[in-house]
Amino acid sequence: RPPKEIRFVPLAQESEFDADELFAYYSEPARNSPLKKFLPIIASSPVYPVIYDSADRVLSLPPIINGQHSRISPDTKNVFIECTCTDLTKGNQVLNTIVAMFSQYSSTPFSIEPVEIAYPSGSSHPKLAGQ
User: How many CA atoms lie within 13 A of 71 on its CB side?
Assistant: First the structure.
């Protein structure tokens, strides 16, 4: 979606931002944000990657920051694991490792639920078979 159409409260914030406002906020020199170095990855794109839940609430603006709505707490029962990458092979390796390690804490140990990802072309992940 275009940056002006992406509105949410980012992690560790209390105010809602659109993506343009958020980039300006994290770009402020006085803020010295560690997120600043990731902004150029998507800043020049007319649309930004964004992950929404079924109620159209922002879960994440990868690779920049997650939304406050998806913050994990000790009471969290369901976890969505996503991995943003510029190298698909390395991204798959990281995602598969995190998913496999995290799955030991599932209510049924070592079980996961895959999700369908809508790409312009391609398939969904993780790809655990044969590894």
Answer: 10
Q: Is residue 73 exposed (0-12), middle (13-18) or buried (19+ Cβ within 10 Å)?
A: exposed
- pTM above 0.90? no
DSSP letters spanning the chain = --GGG-EE-BTT-SS-EEHHHHHHHHH-GGG--GGGGGGGGTTT-SS---EE-TTS-EEEETTTEEBGGG---TT----------SSHHHHHHHHHHHHHHHGGGSSSTT---------SSS--S---TT-
Q: How far apart are CA 66 and CA 10, in angstroms?
A: 6
- CA count, 13 A, side-chain hemisphere, 54: 3
* pLDDT tens digits for range 93-109: 999 999 999 888 888 88
